[in-house]
Amino acid sequence: YPLDTVPFMANNRALEQARSMLAIQQSHPWQSLGPAPLLEEWQNPDPNTGADVRTTASGRMTAIAFDPGNPNTMYVASAGGGVWKSTNKGASFTSITSSRPEFAYASLAVDPQNPNVVYAGTGDLTGYYGNGILKSTDGGASWTLLGSTEFGANAVTQILIHPTNSSLLYAATAWAAQRPAQNDPPGKGVFRSTDGGATWQRVLGCNPCGSGFTDLLMDPSNPQILYAGNAGVGIFKSTDGGVTWNPLDNFSATVGRQNYTRLEMAIGSGPASSTVYAGIDGSRNVNGVLAAWGYVYRSTDGGQSWQLLDPETTPNYCGGQCWYNNAIAVNPADANDIFLGGVDIYRTANGGGAWANIRQGVHVDQHVIVFDPGDPGVAWVGNDGGLFRIKNGVWEAFNTGISSLQFTGVGVHPTNANLAVGGMQDNSHAIFDGTNWRGFSFADGNKAEFDPFDPTIIYHGDQQLSFSANQGSTAGEMRQNAQDRTNGISGNDPTEFYLPFEVDPSSQGVLYLGTNRVYRTENRGVQWTAISQVLEDQANVRSIGVPPSNPNMLYVGTTGGQIHRGIRDANGQWTWTNLTAGPLPPRFLPDIAIHPTNPQIVYLAYNGFSTNTPGSPGHIFKSVDGGANWALADGAGAGAFPDVPGLTILLDPGNPNQVYVGTDIGVFRSTDGGVSWATFSQGLPPVPVTDMKYTQANQLLW
Predict the structure, then answer these.
(1) What is the pTM of this model?
(2) From CA 427, how far away is CA 432, in angstroms rounded?
(3) How far is residue 676's CA from residue 21's CA, in Å, rounded to a whole number?
(4) SS3 279
(5) Are 602 and 592 in contact (CB under 8 A)?
(6) CA-CA distance, 546 to 502, in Å (whole number)?
(7) In this predicted model, what pLDDT tens digit does every residue of 345-382 receive, in sequence order?
(8) Between the CA of residue 430 and those of 434, 477, 681, 684, what are the distances in Å?
(9) What backbone phi and psi angles, to 5 degrees, belong to 347?
(10) CA 616 to CA 585: how far, in whole Å?
(11) Beta carbons of 648 and 590 less than 8 angstroms apart
């Protein structure tokens, strides 16, 4: 933002700059507190008893790969927590990429000729940008980065290895966050390597191009035959090992005018290898209403002709979320045994004649389905809750050791270091007891905050218009005591996916919350009152800053990059001033930090890349006069802040010249109020830091 693309190689440049910066030698390095895994995560009620089903959970899982000669060895990749390895069939996992700067992964491949050779494709199709392909020749003990120049920021959605020629590789790239149609953008397409990934040639361009190539298949009976799915465009086929490609025009003709943003495929084995399935997102008229629909197409002649599986009998498996969760798998031992994964999981045993929803006790939002090479009657599924296995009709979670949950924010008890509450992407909220994290709600989890006047009260919310007050110190108590508190907030207001809210540290019971305007409560959310009009057309409130020393002042940032200040008079009326002026950039404004004793001193952290706003560069800005004037606080030279999105900013209350900023690649610290910066990530992987908290009583930074 404000553009539709991440600058080519931007993350690489930021990482290189960070490596060249001074690294602060921390007397107390960062320590991981898990979860590894999350315990007692709610799934869905047992269909027979109605009782809650709770399992372990980890973060969103995007890829699964096995050692073909030893199925006890398996690898899984996550959208925000790296790659993990198990040598005991999933009983426990160990991180094998924690030392790498890449954290988001979309694909995995193990060399069938040499299982010590493993490839991991970086990037998340629907989220964070990529950085090429990692290759290991020692089973994940060490890695070499390949293809970053060729692939750029795109996610590597699929990696294929020729079954008898380990030097011959294929890769597909896409990025759903970049959807506007483009003509052959750099880094998107199908690539081929003849030297084990050392060099790559783009053999199929992306023109026209939306998301890009979201899937790539190899015929298991003939590795010369490949299929590539270009989302919104169609399927292409090669019969000469990827040297040349031809569009499968009959597929596009059969699909017709459906405007789809993702295309996933699956293929049969042996005599059934001419059977190919394709799943896309589209729309369908249902009782006079246009509904989002997941369509499945089948070809039985290697893609020459296609048939739509009857939508009256085939489940709408991914509905309005096909762009996000779309998975198809065919049992290599039985071509009639097919899985469809979307929000739920559907299975047919007769080639689509009848389907059953088999997601009982399994997390929603499926991303990958793989049949076990050692037992094709067993299937493994990766979803927003981690890794699950179905065997003999029974599901079991396999998340032990995996720490990959994507936290949106964390609330910390002001004096008890063994009590914290965190919100997570699609795993809602969990409470930390000093050792373990246990889930207590469901859906997507917004951040949490403890009430500074009564820390037995905890505030949290789920997605969209959601805010709750809760009380408890255990997961069981939190499950029972949550109270929805949104009275007074207009349900017609547009909001961010996660609703921003802040607690006033100086006024008991006072909180602020943002939609496209600002609300205030004086009774801990029992009743809310709007204190502003719509602050900015076509933009929502994204950040709220409450001065600790002035309860009658408020700073508010928007998704359009504007900063506003509200002043409350003696009659309780608010006057708002737009403080947006140069050199502030027109980029997303995710966080605000205010001096603990001087409300005129304000820091802003901006998202995005300066490369996309060259006329107004910078990420950290400071005002010493209440926003009347702003100065760039990115530093310069060796102490310059890197060109990387700023996500959260925090001032040390005991030494407010000490400023911490969480970014896409870790934490940076300034000890001189933004004049210079250094890395502050000892013990912390270079991953997105979305929230930080400091507890003065025990001097802990979270």
Answers:
(1) 0.95
(2) 14
(3) 10
(4) strand
(5) yes
(6) 7
(7) 999 999 999 999 999 889 999 999 999 999 999 999 99
(8) 12, 12, 25, 21
(9) -140, 140
(10) 5
(11) yes
